[in-house]
non-reducing end alpha-L-arabinofuranosidase (Lachnobacterium bovis DSM 14045), 501 residues
Amino acid sequence: MAKLVINDIEEKNRIAPEIYGHFSEHLGRCIYEGLYVGEKSDIPNVNGMRKDVVEALKEIDVPVLRWPGGCFADEYHWKDGIGDKSKRKKIINTHWGGVVEDNSFGTHEYFELCKQLGCKTYINGNLGSGTVQEMSEWVEYMTFKGVSPMAELRKKNGHEEPWKVDYFGVGNENWGCGGNMTPDFYANMYRRYQTYVRNYDPEKPIQKVCCGANVDDYHWTKHVLNTCYDHTPEQLHGFMDHISLHYYVHPEGWDIKGSATDFSEECWYKTLKKALYMDTLINRHSSIIDQYDPDKKVGLSVDEWGTWFTCEPGTNPGFLYQQNTMRDALVAGITLNIFNKHCDRVKMACIAQMVNVLQAVILTEGEKMIKTPTYYVFHMYRHHQGAKLLESSLSGINEIGECEWIVPEITESVSKKDDIVTITLNNLSATDKKDLDISFVTGKEYEVVEANIVTSSDMHAHNTFDSPEVVKEITFKNYKTVKNGLKVTIPACSVVEIRVR
Ligand code: AHR
């Protein structure tokens, strides 16, 4: 019999809400059309931000939003995106589709969006092609309260008060699109640039994010930390609050990737196996970071993750627009459970990307909007934000899969906040339901306060603009409370949330 034992005696680390963060880049229809339509649009908007999208995003409690890239960040010159919109420079978005970027969404619009969402801010600076002065002036423009050229410019552009920048990334993927640097070269650049990311308001310190590795490039993590580490962990901590990691799941590899909606059962397991690899990556990068920061003050920020499939037929390949099925829901459920379990080191993560790009939580078409299966996983898992992790262990779980793509039947994570225990479970089987006995170490009798599920009998199930509710979150009823626990039957291909008090 499969069992899940939950240690409800000892509360472990706090799950940083920012693990449930999002990423929005000037890429395809993420910012333009997806989030921002402009004040004059017929699509209902508040100060240019789509009302329907903002409303939907507020329901999943977005904790932080990373912007403006991505690869776009290292070519972005922030002064192009301020002041009178009719006079803003039009540039070519060289990375993404070669389209015209009219800069109508810039710094002021980003902070307006974050205000509407009620989320923290994460600006990614330009180290690849920008100067130290440019980066330092951006920080001054955004955060300085007193009298200075940049603060005056901000006021002239209509914003008297400074904003709060919660996180500032010093470059993006500088091993690749951000300048093709070696780790030592980047680390020395990082040391220099981060010096000028000033904390003008000591009460609102900016957390600095150093560019970390691509997938399993442990050499990068090691060398960047080594070059930034002079004497003590405290000194390193003065230089950086986070180091990033980027990992995307493309089932058939980078060149082929594979269709978002048309896939075999073998590919289902291959995708989930690749999602599970996040655990190995976090373990291995963390063990390197531990050598320089044993007290775990530097967070590992997985600020780009998600599925990356072949774009939808007929769409601009540079726009990275893809559909989102139950398979994406499982990738999200598996990954978020992994982040929860590593909350001692993983302090932030941003799914790529928020709207219309890669593993989006929302898709739009003109005035229409749909919530994807991934959206509903974020909606259920929001209860983990800021909760304390509880230790949980599974036994009697079989290995399933096709060919060499072998995965466990179930993955889980458990947390506690305000006396409510939230259990999130994934059934990775495409075909078989699973019975599970859940028990608690204290023997305390709990009652279920809420239980929800995202599932389908078809692993390809997804929402379209004509059928927007094929997959959605519904009440979960397949459980029975028994002495010291629960008996649960988890349907195949599902993500479940059970909350008990
Ligand atoms: O999210 C799409 C792209 O993936 C980002 O711009 C880049 O950082 C990564 O390679």
